[in-house]
Specification:
The chain is α/β, with parallel strands linked by helices and 293 residues long. It contains nine helices and 13 strands. The model has no long low-confidence stretch (mean pLDDT 96).
Length: 293
C-alpha cells in the first residue's frame, strides 16, 4: 500500500497565510493539502482553496476533508470537480460528508426534514453519473434530470471518497464511494470501520481498493490545547481525547503505527489548536516524509 501524508487546514488558517503555505508545501514535496468546510470561520472555502492551490503548483494534490454534499446540487459540484481536474489532472481528491460538524452551519445545506441520508445517497449516485457518463438521464426521489453531459469529463476519472464514523457511513462507503476518510476514531475503531466497508462493498459486488482508506489526525506541539481537548470531547464524549489527539510527534508516530496495522494508508495531519504554521510544516516534512513509500 502507498502510505501518504497530507496537511490539513483548520479554522485558524486564513487567506492571508494560504499563498505562503502552498508554496512551502510544493517546494518541500508534500503530497497533499486538505481544506475543511468551515463556513463561519476565516478558513478558505474548500473549492476556492483547491483552485487557488492548484493554480500555484505543479505537483501538490488538493482535497476536501470533508465538503458537505447534501444541500448542494450534485451536477454543479460535478462541474466544479471536472473543471479542477481538467486544470490539474490526478491532483483533485474530493471527500464528501453527510452534514456539518458545526451545528450553526447545518442549516446552510438544506434538505427535506428527515431525508438527509437519503439525499446523500442519491446525490452520490448522481455525482458519479455526472462525472463519468457521456450524457444521460437520472430519475430519483429528489433529482430528475435529462441529458446530463458535464464537460470536460475527467481523465482519468475522479475517485469520490466519503467521510463518516458510524455504521451507516461505512455501509454508504461500501455501496457508493471509492474510498474512506475517517476522523475522531481510534485505531481499533478504524479497523472495524474498514472491515464493515469491505463487507458492504462485497455485498453489492464492489471492491474498495486496499489503499483507499484514510483518517484525519491532529498533533500538538508538546501539550494538547484546552480548546482542542474540549472540541474532541464534544465530538466523542465516550473516548479519552488523548487517545485521538497526539500530544507530540512521538505519540503521533505510535498512533500511525496502529492505524497502518489496522489497514489505513492515507493520513491528513493537522495541527491541534493554534500553532506556528511554519514550524508545523518544517516538523511535518522532517517527521513524515521519510515514512512515505
Amino acid at each position: 500500500m502507498k502510505i501518504r501524508f497530507g496537511v490539513g487546514l483548520g479554522a485558524d488558517t486564513g487567506p492571508d497565510r494560504l499563498a505562503g503555505l502552498v508554496d512551502r508545501l510544493e517546494a518541500a514535496g508534500v503530497d497533499s493539502l486538505w481544506f475543511s468546510e468551515l463556513v463561519y470561520t476565516r478558513a478558505v472555502d474548500p473549492f476556492v482553496g483547491m483552485a487557488f492551490a492548484l493554480g500555484r503548483t505543479q505537483k501538490l494534490k488538493v482535497g476536501t476533508s470533508v465538503a458537505i454534499l447534501p444541500g448542494r446540487h450534485p451536477v454543479l459540484v460535478a462541474k466544479q470537480l471536472a473543471s479542477l481536474a481538467a486544470v490539474a489532472p490526478k491532483r483533485v481528491l474530493p471527500v464528501f460528508g453527510l452534514t456539518s460538524a458545526i451545528p450553526a452551519e447545518r442549516e446552510l445545506f438544506p434538505v427535506p426534514d428527515g431525508k438527509r441520508a437519503e439525499v446523500f445517497d442519491e446525490s452520490l449516485r448522481l455525482l458519479r453519473i455526472a462525472l463519468r457518463a457521456d450524457g444521460g438521464d437520472f430519475e430519483g426521489r429528489h433529482y430528475s434530470l435529462r441529458g446530463i453531459a458535464v464537460a470536460p469529463r475527467p481523465s482519468p476519472s475522479l475517485d469520490i471518497w466519503v467521510g463518516g464514523a458510524a455504521p451507516a457511513a461505512f455501509r454508504r462507503v461500501g455501496r457508493l464511494a471509492d474510498g474512506w476518510l475517517g476522523s475522531f476514531l481510534t485505531a481499533d475503531e478504524a479497523r472495524i470501520g474498514r472491515r464493515q466497508i469491505q463487507e458492504a462493498a462485497a455485498a453489492t459486488g464492489r471492491e474498495i481498493e486496499a489503499d483507499h482508506f484514510g483518517i484525519n489526525l491532529a498533533v500538538a506541539d508538546g501539550t494538547i490545547p484546552d480548546e482542542a481537548l474540549a472540541a474532541t470531547r464534544r465530538r466523542r464524549p465516550d473516548v479519552d481525547p488523548t487517545d485521538l489527539i497526539a500530544a507530540d510527534w512521538a505519540q503521533l508516530h505510535r498512533q500511525l503505527d496502529a492505524y497502518i496495522d489496522a489497514g489505513l494508508s492515507k493520513f491528513v495531519i493537522r495541527p491541534a489548536g493554534t500553532t506556528d504554521l511554519d514550524a508545523f510544516v518544517d516538523r511535518f516534512t522532517e517527521e513524515l516524509l521519510p515514512r512515505q513509500n
